[in-house]
Amino acid sequence: MPRFAANISLLFAELPFLDRFPAAENAGFEAVEILFPYDIAAKNTRRALLANGLELVLINAPPPNYTGGTPGYAAIPGGEDRFQRDIRRVMRYAEQLKPEHIHIMAGYEQGPGAQASFVRNLQWAADQHPNQKFTIEPLNAGAQPGYFLNDYDLAADILTAVDRVNVGLQFDSYHAQVIHGDAAGIWERFHPLVTHAQIGAAPDRSEPAPGPIDFPSLFAAMDGCGYRGWVSAEYDPSTPRTVQSLHWMR
């Protein structure tokens, strides 16, 4: 079976944030990911990780926009200065939290300029921080209307153009299924590019269960191709308590 991590922004959400770390460890997870860790002092999050023997496998960039400005990020033409400021802020957290991966979000933009901006910004981040691994992830248009990176073929083209060893693909079974109708087929095509993976059912992003995605076969395919990265449970539990939704791990 793959190495499973818990996305504690979604899992164990019935608990206060710092209580989610021991809950994840007690449930059998050895690693966690956090979508946006910026509201909690990094030293407190780091202490919770260490106290429970957990690795931090991923955080998202950018930090929340507290100024009320227009949302945007790496694929926004003309936004290079803002991108670079935000990456510097993110890396201050990363220096303390030591995430294996940072997911760089594309933002909400369309047109040919968006792809060129995304490529340039990813190259800058990768070159400035060569020891940090970064990922990009296609998100489905239903969940994220107007999001630039909404297709796995587009992601592959961008990674080819970026051409940096520390920038890889983030696979998510839920988004892959909704975008392309075949999460397993997307894994088969693109797994050589994948450096981090996430799982959730489609179409409701709940826990893995019988349905359009055959999770036992997907897990077997991950093992069979030699994937050794983390597979994060990133879903909205359909049960009142997260532990009740973890039957898929057994």
Describe this structure in words.
- The protein is of the alpha/beta class and 250 residues long.
- 36% of the residues lie in helices and 16% in strands.
- It is built from eight helices and eight strands, in the order βαβαβαβαβαβααβαβ.
- It has an eight-stranded parallel beta barrel, surrounded by six helices.
- It is globular and about 45 Å long.
- The chain starts with a strand and ends in a 17-residue tail after the last strand.
Keywords:
single chain, about 250 residues, eight-stranded parallel β-barrel, 8 helices, 8 strands, globular
Radius of gyration: 17 Å
Oligomer: single chain
Structural class assignment: alpha/beta
- Round the mean pLDDT to the nearest integer and report it: 96
Order of helices and strands: EHEHEHEHEHEHHEHE
Number of strands: 8
Figure out the total of helices: 8
Q: Estimate percent helicity.
A: 25-40%
Q: Strand count, sense and closure of the main sheet?
A: 8 strands, parallel, barrel
Low-confidence stretches: none
Q: Report how far apart the termini are.
A: 10 Å
